[in-house]
Each structure stands twice: as C-alpha cells, then as structure tokens.
Design brief:
Structural class: alpha/beta
Helix content: 40-55%
Shape: globular
Strand order of the largest sheet: 1-2-3-4
CATH architecture: Alpha-Beta Barrel
Radius of gyration: 17 Å
Number of helices: 10
Number of domains: 1
Order of helices and strands: HEHHHHEHHEHEHH
CATH superfamily: Metal-dependent hydrolases
Distance between the termini: 33 Å
CATH class: Alpha Beta
Amino acid sequence: MKLIDLEAHFFTKEYVAYLRQRRASPDMIKPYADYGYGMAGAALGFAAETQLHAYRLIYSGLFDKYPGLKILLGHMGEGLPYWMFRMDYPWLSRSGGRTPLSRRPSEYVGTNFVMTTSGMFFMPAFMCAYLALGAANIVFASDYPFEKSTQAAAFMERLPICEADRENVCHRNAETLLKL
C-alpha cells in the first residue's frame, strides 16, 4: 500500500493562496458603519481587515510550520509593506504575543507574501513595496472588473524601474509562482 504523508509533503512544497477581501461580517463592520460604504468597503475597510488577517497569519506561527506557503495580497499588499518596520517592534521587545516566531515578522512578509498591483495604481505605494520587497515579490494585476485593464497597463509603463524588473512584475513572477 502506498502512503502519502500530507503534512510532510506540505512542509517541503510551495503552495500559493490568494487572500482576497470581501465585505466584512456585521461585527467587524461596526466600527466603519457610521461612515458609509466607502469607509467600510474599498476605501479602507477591505484593506484594513485583509491586512489584519495577514498579521494574524504571521503572528500565529503558520509560516514557521509551513515555510513554503505563499500568500498573494492584492492592492500592493493592503498596506503591509508600509508597516514592515513597525510590525517588528513587538517581536523585538518580545511582547508580541503567545506564539514565538523564529524570525522577525517583516521577514515573513518578504518570504511568504507576494503583492499584486491590483487597483493600486499609485506610484508611491508601488515604490514602497518595490523598495521594501523587491520586484520578485510583486505581480501585475488589474483588479478587473472594478478597475480598467488599460489603466493598469498604462501604470506599468510609467513605472521608473528597469526593464528586467518590469518584465518580472508583468509576467515572469506570475509564471514562476503559478508554474505557468
């Protein structure tokens, strides 16, 4: 009889999951509700809740247990690259929670998360992710049908990055990550 140890297989392989926001549950949306859908939805709420979930995944120790796991985050990482310095503070002071992590939380962002350009065609946001993570951790996405693909393509053409990095972001990183 042939046996496959799924946990051993999972520990040694690279797996990809896309963490995509959706409308928050009624309890989660309460702090935003008085300010309208813009605040609760795409303007802030979706990104805030997705970023919070990413933090929970990091601090849970998930990536120590499954180091090959890659999580795709839309919208230039939902702000995660911006907060990389700050997220390390609790870990450095060892007041970061009950699960000890083997590395700084920001290191998991660099090794276990890939950001997409979807719906975030803002040069400073791209440059933050690009400088924090490098071109290897960014993939092109348009956020279709919510954003126009032509707008996403035009944004990619305007970026002040070398052609090799543009090629990586536009298609090579996705081809490698998704084994296309």
